[in-house]
Design goal:
This protein is α/β, with parallel strands linked by helices. It contains 14 helices and 13 strands.
């Protein structure tokens, strides 16, 4: 069976790129097709893979994660022009464009979807993230209608969808009118450990610093309660978050991976105040034996068990979060149970489920293809 993996772009170190890593380790001979590739700014494991790029690779600055939004109009044709002849299975991993590749009828196209394109279908939320400049903010409304049309048409080229959560599965049904099967993304549980004598003297956030993640809620709640909070990560909201941080809050910016694991292992609890499609960070906290305080929405509903692996707050307000913190501090959590819960989302579980699904979809697709009368 000849398999090709397709991904939106390889230009940063993120959860979607970790999924591609996990996929490729199952099928190490599979080439990875993508729009653009920046070897210096994504995971080094990809340097050992066969990475095939589109014509966009030759466009100056197109491979920069900082500037890729300015090349929006090129992505549809970039993926449509990829030559995927000769493959039995195409496995795409996408949040934007990779599902738009064109395959032959005999090829089984399976798409692992992290979310339908957010700038197409959740435009106002995307704009509010603060990741785009004023000029682009004025231009994108002129493009978004056409992108939606292309995206919907492209969605029909996929034979089988796998969603990264029930939350994403609902969006696929709403925006694409397709059913999907759910396989949760892989969590690198092996990276994290339970500290025998944790300090438990601070709360923690590890996140990209963008406005929709609502990190300011956690900072304001900790300011109000005068409790320690460490914020790890980088992004366009860094300066603003530092400006509102009180004396008990440290906005650390980016820290090395080895330090991140130690911070997880020694925190009192982990804040997850925004709504995410899935959200891997809460499970990384649980893999460290540490409980989570999460907003009751999105993917967190599928990973946090209230009263067992953490607690929820119901409104995106400081008051609601403060009340959740007070409740949290009255509870006792078992680190071993937290770790065991996180193991349900491990890389090994992901790889086993994806392998079985791919094999079943391939056999079903072949049966349908050969029995068309």
């Amino acid at each position: 069976m000849r398999i090709a993996i397709v991904h939106d772009d390889l230009t940063q170190r993120g959860g979607a790129e970790r999924v591609v890593e996990a996929m490729h380790s199952i099928w190490p001979s599979a080439p990875i097709y993508t729009s653009v590739y920046d070897a210096k700014n994504t995971f080094s494991t990809f340097t050992k893979c066969e990475v095939c790029t589109s014509y966009m690779q030759k466009i100056p600055f197109a491979a920069s994660a900082k500037y890729n939004k300015f090349f929006l109009i090129f992505y549809p044709t970039a993926f449509e022009m990829l030559d995927l002849r000769g493959f039995d299975v195409v496995l795409s991993s996408t949040t934007r464009f990779a599902h738009g590749v064109i395959t032959s009828p005999e090829t089984c196209h399976i798409s692992y979807c992290h979310s339908p394109s957010r700038f197409a279908w959740r435009y106002h939320e995307y704009i509010s993230e603060g990741k785009i400049g004023k000029i682009f903010e004025r231009v994108i409304p002129l493009l978004v209608h056409h992108i939606r049309l292309w995206d919907y048409i492209a969605s029909k080229r996929v034979d089988y969808y796998i969603a990264n959560s029930k939350n994403t599965a609902r969006r696929l049904l709403k925006f694409y009118d397709v059913n999907s099967r759910v396989v949760y993304p892989p969590v690198e549980t092996h990276r994290f450990f339970i500290e025998k004598n944790p300090t438990l003297d601070y709360y923690l956030i590890v996140s990209r610093l963008v406005s929709y993640k609502k990190i300011d809620l956690a900072i304001q709640a900790c300011n109000q309660l005068s409790i320690p909070l460490k914020v790890v990560g980088n992004g366009p909201d860094l300066k603003r978050l530092r400006s509102i941080a009180g004396s008990t809050v440290e906005v650390l910016g980016r820290v090395p991976d080895g330090e991140v694991e130690k911070l997880f292992a020694n925190c009192k609890g982990f804040f997850f105040p925004g709504e995410e499609d899935f959200g891997i960070a809460p499970l990384e906290a649980m893999a460290s034996g540490r409980p989570v305080i999460a907003y009751r929405a999105g993917g967190a509903i599928e990973t946090v068990v209230d009263g067992e692996t953490g607690v929820f707050f119901d409104e995106p307000t400081v008051e609601s979060l403060v009340n959740a913190i007070k409740r949290f501090e009255q509870l006792v959590f078992d680190p071993i149970k937290l770790r065991l819960h996180a193991e349900k989302f491990s890389i090994e579980v992901f790889q086993k489920q994806i392998s079985i699904l791919l094999e079943n979809c391939f056999l079903e697709h072949n049966y349908k293809y050969k029995n068309i009368s």
